[in-house]
Amino acid sequence: xxxxxxxxxxxxxxxxxxxxxxxxxxxxxxxxxxxxxxxxxxxxxxxxxxxxxxxxxxxxxxxxxxxxxxxxxxxxxxxxxxxxxxxxxxxxxxxxxxxxxxxxxxxxxxxxxxxxxxxxxxxxxxxxxxxxxxxxxxxxxxxxxxxxxxxxxxxxxxxxxxxxxxxxxxxxxxxxxxxxxxxxxxxxxxxxxxxxxxxxxxxxxxxxxxxxxxxxxxxxxxxxxxxxxxxxxxxxxxxxxxxxxxxxxxxxxxxxxxxxxxxxxxxxxxxxxxxxxxxxxxxxxxxxxxxxxxxxxxxxxxxxxx
Length: 306
What we know:
Layout: H1 6-12, E1 14-18, H2 21-30, E2 34-35, H3 37-45, H4 47-55, H5 66-76, H6 81-84, E3 85-87, H7 108-119, E4 123-125, H8 127-146, E5 155-168, E6 174-187, E7 194-200, H9 207-216, H10 219-234, E8 240-246, E9 253-257, H11 260-283, H12 300-305
Parallel strand pairs: 2-6, 3-4, 7-8
Antiparallel strand pairs: 1-5, 5-6, 8-9
C-alpha cells in the first residue's frame, strides 16, 4: 500500500494509504468542508461553539490520551517512535558548588532543549513512563499475534482514507463534503473486521461501563462511517470492532464487534449529522448560541432531601 495521496483524491474523490498523524491533520486543513468522526461529533454537540472554536483556531486537547497515544505508537508505528518521542530523565540544575537545588529545578539548557523538541512535535517522556507503556504495548502485540495479526505481515496500521460526498439538502441543493479517517488496524484478509485500538482506564470486564463509553464517545459513529467509506473505496463492506486495552496492569483486553443492526442505527445518526453540517456550510447559519428555554425539574434525590 502506498502513502495517502491528496492529488489522487482531488482527481477521483477517493484515496487510501499510509499516513502519519501529523500529515493526516495537515491534510484536513487543506480541504474545504472537511470532517472526520471527531470533528463531526464535536460539531453535533453545538454547531455554533464548533464554528467559533474553528474560526478562532482553538483546538480541543486532553492529557488523558497521552498514555494511549504512547502505546499506539509502540504497537502500531514502532518505526516512527524515535521521530515522535524522546525518552529522557530530568536533569536537576546545580548550584555553583555542584550541589543540586532542593526544589528539583530543571537544568536550564535541558529545559530549552525540551521546549525546542516540543515545538518540533516531539514529546519528551520520562524513562518510567516509557517502561510502563512498553510493557503494555508488548502485552498488546502478543495478543494481536495470537489472533494472527502481525504488523506489516497480516495487517496494516495508520491507514488514512479520504472520500468526497455530495450531501443533498433542501431544494435539491448538493453540498460538497470531504470525509477523512484513519484506521488503526486494517487486516489484509478482507473477511476480518477493521479494528480500532482504545486504551481505557475502565476494567474491560465491566461491560456496562465499556458500552457506556462507546455511547459517550460516539464510537458507533466512527464504526459505521469508517465501514461505509471504506466500502465505497474498496468495494467490500467490512465489519468493525473495538479492541479495548486497560491502561493499568494487568492490561486486560476485550474485542467488541459492532453488530450489523447497531451499524444501521449509527449510519442514520452520522448521515443526519452530515446533512446538518452541510446545511450550516451552505447557509452560514450555525445554531446553538441560544439554547431553548426549559424548566428545571428536581431530581428524586433532591426531593427526598427536602
